Amino acid sequence: MKTFVKLCWIFLFVAGKLFSQENIKGQITDGSTGNVNPVLIINISAQKSSLSSMSGEFAIEAAENDEVRFVKEGYYRLEKKITKEDLASPLHILLRRMEIQIPEIEIAYKPTGNLVKDSKYLSESGKLKALKSDITMYMKSPLNEPMPDNTVSKTFTGHDFNAGQVNVMGVFKAISGIIKKASKPKITKADYNETQNFLIRVKNEISLDFLKKYGMDEEQIDRFLLYANKTRMLAKNYRKDFKNDVVEYELKVAFGEYRKLHKLNGWEK
Question: How far apart are alpha carbons 262 and 258 in whole angstroms?
Fold first, then answer.
């Protein structure tokens, strides 16, 4: 009997938690320029998320004491613990923009006044100069191990006019390959937060007018972006190397397939 009563109390407690979920609503601004959009809203306690609208309005399922987080690139992250008052009236969320500090650049080279000489020196990147210096030092350094003698005697060969010459093209091809390999970011699988941040950046930086021409609203555009990301692996391939023209091309390729699956006049499936 005691066990049955205990189980009943546990059931009522869990049911109370489940049915106590409500929607909190509100407006997100930055205090100066107006609404901030789109912002990623995450209910950490309930593992739910949503995006604010273009007008800065938001809504997300939450209960009292839930921890809700507001995230947007270029702004300080804001965390809020939900109270009874928050459930009863709309929230006003203020996000503060991050300060951008430009690092001081120290130029060790002193210009001579000769435009040709100065521009040649300053246009060469530090990485390329370092690679050239390393290659030069390597070529001048003595061999650590003796090379096997596997050559034809000079008695039987003519004069070698290439003796002592360096394959300059080969050296610069090697340099170019090293720089390209070092500068290109490694492609890795995007986690949930990385994917959400990538999609937000797409909406901020890529013109989506070609979607709006088909009468697609914000929710429908978000649904298409999720489809494009899944089929074209956009966040995985481009979140670390974001190029507007490349991402826009991938979106239009995905949209060509998306149109075959959906009726976009009035956007009826």
Answer: 6
Grouping H, G, I as helix, E, B as strand and the rest as coil, residue 265 is: coil
Give the largest Cα separation in the chain, rounded.
Answer: 109
Q: Which residues pair with 57 in a beta bridge?
A: 27
Q: Which amino acid is at 45?
A: S
Helix (H) or strand (E) holding 68: strand 67-71
Instruction: Judge residue 164's burial from the number of C-beta atoms within 10 Å of its C-beta, 0-12 exposed, 13-18 middle, 19 or more buried.
Output: exposed
pTM of the model: 0.35
- pLDDT one digit per residue (tens) for the chain, 269 residues: 556 545 555 554 544 544 456 889 999 998 876 678 889 999 999 999 999 998 889 999 999 999 999 999 889 999 999 999 999 999 999 999 888 766 565 656 666 767 666 666 656 556 666 667 776 776 666 655 555 455 555 544 555 555 555 555 665 566 566 555 556 788 899 999 999 999 999 999 999 998 888 888 888 999 999 999 999 999 999 999 999 999 999 999 999 899 888 877 654 44
Kindly state the tokens that stand for 259: 């149109």
**Which residue, among 242, 234, 221, has the nearest Cα to 195 in the 3D structure?**
234
Q: Report in angstroms the alpha-carbon separations of 179 from 127, 173, 175, 238, 239.
A: 8, 10, 6, 20, 21
Distances (CA, A) of 117 to 82, 87, 125, 145, 265: 64, 68, 15, 40, 62
CB atoms within 10 A of CB 224: 21
